[in-house]
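Hi Y.,

Following your request, here is the sequence exactly as I used it, all 324 residues.
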Amino acid sequence: MRVLVTGGSGYIGSCAARHLAAAGHEVVILDNLSTGHKELAQDFELVVGNIADRKLVDGLLARVDAVMHFAASAYVGESVVNPRKYFANNVESGLALLDAVLASKVRTFVFSSTCAVYGVPRALPMTEELAREPINPYGASKLFFERVLEAYAVAHGLRYAALRYFNAAGAHESGEIGEMHEPETHLIPLAIRAALGTGPELKVFGDDFETPDGTCIRDYIHVSDLAEAHVKAVEYLSAGGDPVALNLGTGKGSSIREVIRWTEEVSGRKLPHEVVGRRAGDPPALYASAAKAERVLGWKARRDLEKILKSALEWELKKGAVMR
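Below is the corresponding structure, written out as tokens. Let me know if you'd prefer a different format.
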């Protein structure tokens, strides 16, 4: 199968491209490189351009059998201060891509969604049956696109999988891919940099939540586990599988203090950190039920928090961090 991977020069998209290739599929990457990195696509055909460029996309769709759509703006905080950017990139440009798909022969579409579509969960672990009530423009933009996919499936026979990620982390086992966000806002790379002395002291936003140790609990999933789920999803749809929305998580939450402890364990260093005030809107705990993904795709996360942190540490060291 030949798969068009939009946003394939980014963190998760480039990892998915490698897992697709390892499974025997051909990959074509479309990325405007606004946040992606050309070097992450060096082993694949890379087309530099925008998903809203209809002429360009039409030509690419004529050559592929399926689409994996990662291209999007993806910072929750930024979406609050600049919602216009998020609705333009994630909704308007996404719709342009989807309309081009409908005009082509392609009917298999895997969408990079997010647990942010749920908002503050009413129950834990979070299942796909929970109400989708996003509390920020990023989550709202992803939910809008999910609703478009639902409508297009009914009206146009589109086969889609909306994959709702929890907290992606870690680095590909090859050592070729890891987190390269600017600015970096994710806990695990920030924690590792603080431990290595290559980044500032880690800020812990609140230690008075109603959790066992007072800090927020999140579901951290290895980027390679996410990539493997995407391969299984595109193969499931190509075999005639019904449209589906699936949580991708480990089913187990880890607190910030647990992340700090494990970072110190794998690095052999103390992790300087400071407790500061809570961030507005931070739920005490978010973690998935991934039972549906296991049932539908035969997929289950295989890498635990220790493996996530070890791979992330190796990536940071490879990028030139020097332990002091």
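The CA atoms of residues 121 and 143 lie 15 Å apart.

Thanks again,
Q.
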